[in-house]
C-alpha cells in the first residue's frame, strides 16, 4: 500500500478546507487556518492536526497501520 501525502484539513471553527502536503518523518502539532487564523492543535488522543482534522491520517500513522 502507498503512503498518501496529501490531506485536506478542515478547520473546526470556520469550516475552511485546504489541501496540504504532510511531512513524511514527523507529526505536525500546530496549523493556522488561513481564513479565520485559528491555531489548530491535535484533539485528545491524536498525534497531529492531520489525524484530527485531515481527510487522511499522517504518514507515520498510515505506515503504522500498514504494518498491522
Describe the structure.
With 68 residues, the protein is of the alpha+beta class. The protein has one domain (6-66). 19% of the residues lie in helices and 21% in strands. The strands form 2 sheets. It has a two-stranded antiparallel sheet with strand order 1-2. A two-stranded antiparallel sheet has the order 3-4. The two termini are 12 Å apart. The model has no long low-confidence stretch (mean pLDDT 93).
Secondary structure layout plus pairing:
Layout: E1 6-10, E2 17-21, E3 31-32, E4 39-40, H1 49-53, H2 59-66
Antiparallel strand pairs: 1-2, 3-4
Strand percent estimate: 15-25%
What's the main sheet like?
2 strands, antiparallel
The share of residues in helices is: 10-25%
Number of strands: 4
- Spatial extent as radius of gyration: 12 Å
Mean pLDDT figure:
93
- Total helical elements: 2
Structural class: alpha+beta
The global form is elongated
Tally of domains? 1
**Order of strands in the sheet with the most strands?**
1-2
Order of helices and strands: EEEEHH
Spatial separation of the terminal alpha carbons: 12 Å
Q: Ranges with pLDDT <50 over ≥5 residues?
A: none
Amino acid at each position: 500500500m502507498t503512503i498518501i501525502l496529501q490531506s485536506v484539513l478542515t478547520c473546526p471553527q470556520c469550516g475552511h478546507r485546504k489541501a496540504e502536503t504532510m511531512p513524511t518523518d514527523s507529526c505536525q502539532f500546530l496549523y493556522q487556518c488561513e481564513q479565520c487564523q485559528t491555531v489548530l492543535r491535535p484533539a485528545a488522543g491524536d498525534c497531529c492536526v492531520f489525524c484530527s482534522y485531515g481527510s487522511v491520517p499522517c504518514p507515520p500513522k498510515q505506515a503504522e497501520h500498514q504494518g498491522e
